[in-house]
Amino acid sequence: MNIEEIREYCLSKKGTNEDFPFDETTLVFKVMDKIFVLTDLTGDLSLNLKCDPTWAIELREQYPAILAGYHMSKKHWNTVKIDGTLSNSFIFRLIDHSYDLVVKKLPQKIQIELTKL
């Protein structure tokens, strides 16, 4: 998996845009202006993804490529190394989970707006 596949997948989700709000190397994907994926375009490819706290711990215990979120809330974010040890479908599932968690926290009015896109 590479950054272009990740980018294409993230941008295919409703209400999603990409941005560089922090610097020119940290690519961020947002749904309705709320972050659900962060990645640094330099160095080894990895993703910071929002995750249910209980599942986050389980994932970290089960997969060496999944760590507590780098520079993020360790409770709510995981860093997922894209090193070939996790299947593409599993990585897409983790992205979906992050997206869904962020959408659920959006105000009702914004969630309704999102469904109309």
Tell me what you see in this structure.
- Helix content is 38%, strand content 26%.
- The protein has 117 residues and is α+β, with helices and mostly antiparallel strands.
- It has a six-stranded antiparallel sheet, with helices on one face.
- The mean pLDDT is 95.
- The protein contains four helices and six strands; from the N terminus they run αββββαββαα.
- The chain has helices at 3-11, 53-62, 88-105, 108-115, and strands at residues 16-19, 26-31, 34-40, 46-50, 66-68, 77-81.
Key structural traits:
single chain, 117 residues, alpha+beta, six-stranded antiparallel β-sheet, 4 helices, 6 strands
Structure at a glance:
By secondary structure, the chain is an alpha+beta fold.
